[in-house]
Input
Amino acid sequence: EVQLLESGGGLVQPGGSLRLSCAASGFTFKNYAMTWVRQAPGKGLQWVSAISDVGSRTYYADSVRGRFTISRDNSKGTLYLQMNSLRADDTAVYYCAKPFYSGSGSHFDYWGLGTLVTVSS
Amino acid sequence: EIVLTQSPATLSLSPGERATLSCRASQSVSSYLAWYQQKPGQAPRLLIYDASNRATGIPARFSGSGSGTDFTLTISSLEPEDFAIYYCQQRSNWPPITFGQGTRLEIK
Output
């Protein structure tokens, strides 16, 4: 059974940093690109970032480029999102998602439960 | 960036009725469009991929159609558990991958 378990969310002050993790199991993690999607309270879904299967290619939404860094450790089956210079509008539930197709540009057939990031003073 | 516009924003129907949800893309996405269902406090669930293919375990009352810029999600006969928010998502021209703003399907 595919499982994605995010962690690392919490309350942080504007300008602060957080590192999110997503522990994956139940599929061959190293064969799939992975993605982060976020959802602000009461709002819709927003794609944040993606990383290729071996980690050589990364992609970012304009709103986070230069502040967030996606990475992965295939030996641990874990996806990461380092978030720096956080702003109030980064407040959201952050989901990691597995692509239906193995590549980065895909639909998403499995999602984690999400981890809440709140940026507030 | 491809913008996906969903309509209506809210759809009020009764169990047993037919639901028709629309997603329009700002430029062609071919058939690279998916539909998701999201219930409060839950992650999105993939319903339809590549416009018309049901994901694993999705009931046959859910169907998708369309190509290019105009897409439809149809629920043939609403069950109580179908009342939720529905999102479309394109994977044709990315980054960024984009989602529609959602259609809330509520009980009338």
Summary: The mean pLDDT of chain B is 97. The radius of gyration of chain B is 13 Å. The interface with chain A takes residues 34, 36, 38, 43-46, 49-50, 55-56, 87, 89, 91, 94-102 of chain B (CB under 8 Å).
